[in-house]
Amino acid sequence: MERKRLSVARSPAARGAVAGAVAALCAAAGSAAGPAAAAGRRPARTYEPRWQSLKGVPVPAWFDDGKFGIFIHWGPYSVIGHRKGGRGYAEHVPKMIYADPEYYYPYLEKRFGAHPPAFGYKDFVRRFKAEKWDPDAWADLFVRAGARYVVLTGEHHDGYAMWDSKLTDWCATKVGPMRDLVGDLGKACRARGLKYAPSYHRERHTGFFAMHRYAVRSEPRPDIAEEIRREPKAAGLYGPFSYTDEFIRDYMARWKELQANYRPDFMWIDDIPIFYKAKQDPQTRKFRDTFQSLIADYLNDAASRGQAVYLNNKGRNVNWPVECGCREKDNLKLERIGPKWQNPATLGTSYGYMVDEEKRDAYKSATELVRLLCDTVSKNGNLLLNIGPRADGTIPEGMQKRLRAVGGWLKVNGEAIYGTRPWKTPAQKGRPELRFTTKGKTLYVLCLAEPKAAFTVTGLKGAKPGDVQGVRMLGSDAKVAWKLGDDGLTIIAPPKAAGKHVWGFAVGCRSAPATPARTVFSAGAGT
User: Fold this and answer.
1) Model pTM?
2) What are phi and psi of 208, to 5 degrees?
3) Which residues contact 391 (CB under 8 A, 6 or more apart)?
4) Which residues 6+ apart lie within 8 Å of 8 measured at CB?
5) How far is CA 66 from the centre of its chain?
6) Handedness of CA 112, 114, 115, 119 (dihedral sign)
7) Domain enclosing residue 186, as ranges
8) Distance, CA of 324 to CA of 473 (rounded, Å)
9) Rg of the chain over all Cα atoms, to the nearest angstrom
10) pLDDT in tens, 149-200
11) How many independent structural domains does the chain possess?
C-alpha cells in the first residue's frame, strides 16, 4: 500500500510564533547584557557576521588553563540504554530503531512490550523521568574529579530540549522529568566555580528520523509518519525533515533561547555533515551563513558583560571555514602539537548510557584515562571526558570510580596539567614513554609507566651547567638524583616511587623552557 507523503510544516500562526520568539530572544539577550553594557563599556573586540571577522577568536584563560572538562550525554535515549552488538553510540539508537526494525522491533517488544508505530521514541521521552537526579551530587563529583568545566547535552539529534523552552512542547519541563535539567545543573556547577555550557546537536535533526540522513530535503520513515498520523503532536519532536527556512529560523531561535537564559561559557556545536555532503545547495549555504551571525552575536553578547567565552570547530571536515574555536572530533588524538584543540572522549564506546557497558564494566581504566589526559595536554589539547548517566539521573559506579581516580591523581600532579603550555617536543618514545608540559621556569616530565630505572630526557641535550636547577618528584618528599650529560638530563627516581597511573617530575630551569611555534591544522592532522 502506498503511503502518502506527510507534511509537517507548521501553520502560518506557528511560523509567526517562532519568528516572534526569535525577536524576543534577541531583545532579551540585548537587555541581559549586564553591567558592562549599562556602564557604556564596549567589548575589546566587536565581531561582525563575517567569517574573516570571526577568524582567530582568542582562547580564554579559563579554557586554556583548565585542561579537563566533563561531557554528559543524557536524555530519553538513556531509557533504552542499548545498541545492537553492545558497542557504539547508544544515543543514536532512536534513529536506528526505525532504520533496523528487524533487530530493534523484536528487542523492544521483548523488553517494553511494544514497538513502533504503536510504541515509538516519543513514548521513551515520556518514560524519561530523572527521578533520582541530584544535580548537586553530580557537581560535587565533577569537582572531586578535578574538572574545571562541564558540558551537558542541551539537545541531541533526537529533537528533545533538556531545558525550559518556550519554542517546543517536547522539552524537559513539559514532558518527562518536568524540570529544567540544563538550568538546574548549571546552577549547581557554577555554585562550585565550574564553567558551564549546554551542547547543541540539532543541526542533524532533519535526517535523524528521515529516509535520508544527510540530505537537504527528505521525508519521514514510514512508521514515523504513521506515529505522526496517530498523534499529530509528535511532528514537533520528529520533524521537520528538510533544511527549510523554517528549520533554520527555529534552529537559531533555540540557540538564542539557550544563550539568553543560561549564558553558556562555551558554544558547543556538533559537526554538520550537510556542509560538505551538499555544500552547493542554496539551503546549505544559507544554513552555514546563519552561523556567522549566530557566533558573532554570541561572542558580542558575552563580551558586553565581561564574560570570556569560547567555541568549538568540530568534525573531520570542520564546520567553520576559518580558524574559529578549538578543533574537535570524537576521540580526537594528535601526533604533534596543534593550535588549541579538544578531545571529547568516550569512557567506553558510547557517549550515551549503555547497559551492556555497565554490566561488563567496559570503560577505559583509570590509568588509560590519566595517560590520555597527559597526552592530550602535552599537545595543547583539552580532554572533555564523557559520561552517560542512567535515565533516572544516577551515574554508574564504574564511571564514578574512574572520575574519582582521575581526581585523586590530579590532586597530587595537577600542577603538571593546570595552567601549563606545551614544550618544544610533546613526547619521547622509549621506556618509559614520556610526555612534557611547561609552566614558567618549570619543565614537567610525565612518565607513562613507573620509573623503575634511570631515564634520560633527550630534549635537554646540549643543556649547560646551571640550566637545570633541580628536580623533584610530584607528591613525594624523597630526594631525586639527576645529572646533565651529553645525551640530556638523566633522572633517577627514588626507590619504590610514590604514585600510580603516571609519575610526574618537576624540573626547575634557569629560564623558561622553549615552547613551540604556533601551528595550524592541515587535513589529516587527527588520527
Assistant:
1) 0.90
2) -65, -40
3) 76, 78, 79, 81, 127, 128, 129, 130, 353
4) 220, 228, 235, 238, 239, 240, 241
5) 14
6) negative
7) 12-37+73-328+392-416
8) 38
9) 25
10) 999 999 999 999 999 999 999 999 999 999 999 999 999 999 999 999 999 9
11) 2
